[in-house]
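Re: the 224-residue chain
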Amino acid sequence: MKALLEKLNLPYKDESLYDMARTHSSYAYENQLEKYEKLEFLGDAVIELLMSDYLYKEDLADEGEMTKKRAKAVCEDALVMYANKIQLADFIKLGKGESIKGPNNAMIADVFEALFAAIYLDLGLEEARRVFEIVAVPYFPKVWKNKDYKSALQELIQSGDKRVISYHTIRETGPSHNREFEAAVRLDTHITLGVGRGRTKKEAEQNAAHEALKKGNYDIKENV
């Protein structure tokens, strides 16, 4: 972990915080250590504050647009993008079983949040802001260009009759280390609008929403 802290030019004081930030529950259980969940909880709030402050100061949009930009910039996919730029996954401590599969995107995003909590607790908000500006801000234009089909479909559906859409995993295939998921997006719980596949549940849901948007027929009364 020291290699990453030095790469980020962090004048860290309490190295134990950063070790906790990278300790998954599987490793913590096997070695009687503290896991990163509490730090992840705090880090989520720290990152959201830094993101909100950035958008406010940059005056990039009105309140509604800022909310959309913030949501895209702090979602799991975005956090994984930032984390991958600093090779954060290489530093995550996993238990014996999990280490065979390696960290998934949810773990990587969680550790990224926990890292920011550790920085905040150890060095304060301004140091967290400095790191945020290095590892996240440069990638905002790319993040904001990414298509969020689920949000687009939600807005489209709710702009009409206030009907409800939901996502359901309908199939999982492949070995545990290389799963493929199939998800369906449904209107009013029973009308299937689209089906999508992906390596994660979230990717499958995004692809299902994309399929629904391409079809574009939401007046249907029965299953399609």
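The mean pLDDT is 86.
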